[in-house]
Amino acid sequence: MSSQRIKFNLFLLVLLSALFVELSIAELTEKSEQSRLTEDTVHADAFRRQKVEPAMAAYIRTLDQPGENLALYWLETDFGKERMETVWGAETLADFRQKWKNHPDYPEYRKWCSAIYDDAKCFPVPKFIEKRAGVTFEDSWMYERNYGGKSGHEGCDIMAGENIRGYYPVLSMTDGTVTQKGWLPKGGYRIGVMSDHAVYFYYAHLDSYADLEEGDRVKSGELLGFMGDSGYGETEGTVGKFPVHLHIGIYLCEGTEEISVNPYALLHYLEDKKIKIW
Fold this sequence. Notes:
Layout: H1 3-34, H2 45-48, H3 54-60, H4 67-76, H5 90-100, H6 106-119, E1 127-128, E2 135-137, E3 144-145, E4 151-152, E5 156-160, E6 169-171, E7 176-184, E8 188-195, E9 199-209, E10 217-218, E11 223-227, E12 245-254, E13 257-261, H7 264-270, E14 276-277
Parallel strand pairs: 1-14
Antiparallel strand pairs: 2-5, 3-4, 5-12, 6-11, 7-8, 7-10, 8-9, 9-11, 9-12, 12-13
Helix pairs in contact: 4-6
């Protein structure tokens, strides 16, 4: 066999080996990505933290129904551990949807992402024309809390710019049904609304309620009550243990099980959906 023929065969062998390695890596990568989604994904800490980087947060604000887009974003970035390589558009999302749609656990997972983000229509505190009366919030998910024993903070606190009880209206973020109302030692005067897709929105530390009872239907933007500082006491009406604020909790309801998720990213999404008053 000529040396030229030998060189060609060696080149072909190297090329095929490289191609085999590339295909193997691609196959392993896809299998690794597919393993991110199981029937227990919505129970996992990575999903419950609801991490969204700024570029994606800005993009979903342009969408009417961001739920499935976020579902795909979390799968493609390993729930925020990996950075987005490009700003997504309709074509990119279509490719990712095609990739995941036949996964056996995708429909259930997508259902919960859509239930959270597509049902929520407005920020829970209206926008005041007078700037001094604004509110702020930060990501305090699972920060330590000590009342009644050590626990993780399963929610997000919206802090009042003016520390005045009964001044800030609290609005329902979704359509739904009032399922809980009344005093809790930790949450004070609280009200809970079950959205139409079985997500429970919990509003705590109220000063007072609107004229609502358990079983009543509410619309997104409807008044639930007023922000206060109630709670951290066995005695109903305990106040003054902390500044005026609104605690928001979000729970996915599967039968009798409740899965808490971080409201922080959703509140950011709703910031430009504030109802203006005064």
